[in-house]
Amino acid sequence: MKPNIIKEIKDTKTGSVTVTEPNKVRQVISKETAEELMKMTEYVVTNGTGGYSKVSGYSVGGKSGTSEPLDRNKEDGYVASFIGLSPTVNTQVVILVALYNPKIGSHQGGQVAGPVVSQILTEVLPYLGVPSNQSSNLSDIPGSSSNETIILPDVRNKTITEARNLLSNFKIHIAGIEDENITIITDQLPKPGISLFKKSDVFLYTEKNNDKKYVTVPSLKGMSASQATNSLSSKKLNAVINGSGIVISQSIAANTEVEQGTAITVTLQKEISGGY
Fold it and tell me: Which of 27, 124, 203, 231 has the fewest CB atoms in 10 Å of its CB?
């Protein structure tokens, strides 16, 4: 497309509006080439150095980057980057994360910036209403026998009775005693659209009972999926599990005060060796 920075021009005196129409110049690459490139980016995430950027329930493509400083500018350090996109069919979100001179652990783009991309996509995709393409089946997660995840429905502006029916697969917490047939839910936590395991804790609030309780997020680094889930569950917090192995990052830092019911995205990974 021809570059364009003006959408429209409005004459404030006459009210007339001149709209700038898009101007297609040429097709940069063919559809076949684009599809092949998309397969390559998805392979980076599923089998290459982009494994840290995986998002449970969504297809993700990406490419890592690690730039070395010039010899005369060694103090500038490395730049670790990762560009991720999702879904790989009918893509809705593209993210570029670049971290300058990372100080702790690896300086490789896939290992440093990849988890950040994963955490952002985990929040953004459900928020945009992008449907999940699978149910998680992690054998070491406690809860239901199938360990499947379910999209949390929106029960705001519904009665408590209606909410209970819609949330039959979850553990519901409602403060106070009210007429459940007429009392309206004003807020919920976690927010709707997120994929949660069965029996996850969902807190509902009404206009009369809307006091939220806060807990401290535990440190999950190095734990297995089941250990992290149990640790969060003990505080009435919910786990969203990405990957397998041991925990390498969590979306909300340890010792942070959050509301009960908050969903913490936990990224697990087996050690990746070799390559940028």
Answer: 27
